[in-house]
Amino acid sequence: MIESLPKLLNATLTTLKLLSLSLIFGLIIGLIFALMRLSKKKFINNFSYGFSYIFRGTPLLVQIFIIYFGLGQIEYLRSTFLWTILKEPYWCAIIAFSLNTGAYTSEILRSAFQTIKPGMIEAGKSLGISSKIIFYKIQIPIAIKQSLPAYGNEIILMLKGTSLASTVTLMDLTGVAKYIISTTFKPVEVFIVAGGIYLLLTFLVHNLIKFSEKKMRTN
Amino acid sequence: MSKLQKLFISFVTISFLLIGNAYSDKVRIGTEGAYPPWNAKDSSGNLIGFEVDLAKELCSILKHECTIVEQDWDGMIPALLMRKFDLIMAGMSITDERLKTINFSQGYADEVASLAVMKGSSLENLQTVESLSLSNKNAAKKTLDQLTKALAGKTIGVQTGTIHQNFLESGDVGNVTVRKYKTQDEVNLDLAAGRIDAALAAAVAFTDYAAKSKKPVVLVGPTFSGGAFGNGVGIGIRKGDNSSTVGKRDAKLLKDFNRAIDTARKKGIISKLAIKHFGFDASM
Prior knowledge:
By secondary structure, chain A is an all-alpha fold.
């Protein structure tokens, strides 16, 4: 087991890379769709609702399979520039993860925006502050503070979700664990070590979020 | 008897029945059901293929009651070791690496491995010897060097945990990028989609796929055998010993099935089934 540890730790880097990139893209997607959801225009509102409904309503594994194996079957797509991205399992995984976490993040942010009492915004307006500044200085900070616990949960869910990258040939932590098992035939031991690494990562994420929550409260 | 007592007694009886079933002398055979023509599933989900038919024949020779169970390839040997079934018949080649963990019966069939590419690939015109045996490393060297050159920088897909993966990772053909898939189906899909430059598997796995999908998949290079490709396909079985009842049973199963393969071979059953499923006599 000891000899497989460096390989697993190396693969943990891939997992973390997948996680961080997906979270960054997901946060951008989530913010855009959350704002669309708050829009008064019916079409924009419904579009955003439909997006989050589809991506929260289907399993992440199915989403990855559709993006990786499904889109790969469309011959027309293979002749376009999109194929340079979709050809790579790495980017297919990132796209699936980003859209999935983006859908959840948009719901988290939407509910956070909705907790802001209209009175706060009106107070700003009555002081003559422009709505742009109200958005950046009042709405965003409050929304971040409100959504932090739920978002921390989403990061942890996403961390475990990245294990599905192994189904499209990526050598993340789970992928390498499976690879080691295919030569050692010792699933229990290897999966316990891999599970331990996931547990440790969750512990770090959990504490990071707890720390930021504390920091925000004192501010 | 009170109602509660009755309930308790029936519960205990049922549990004994269930446990009894799990330890009955029925022989359970694990197969993948995703590697045609060795083993596959028909459209209604029933297991079919050469090994499914052969398993039934061997069991009827031994007058054993058998059930065939499905198991993903990457968990095949672990599942055998955990006694989820007693035998593996899943196109599994007899290799030294696997023999460290499990036993094999004598081989019952063998066929060659081959590289496959899509029509129009730059590898399509690869000119090599027709068949390459790795049993003699010196004789194979020239062709291996040629392959090393042709495959440099290419991405090749294989099913994970196979002889094909072992061969590509052995360094015999230099440093190619090996992409590992859970099933052969997925390898075929990505080969057709152009995500990988070539794929390596049993030659029949590609011809079967090409025939069913009507995709322009072509075999290139030599057919491979020997060395990392093992010594034919046999029945995988736990290493038995005489120290325990289950160990004795495993040792007996190995002896029984070796005998059954002998009988089936003599009667021409294996050849007949091979011709039916492969289109040529792959028996050994």
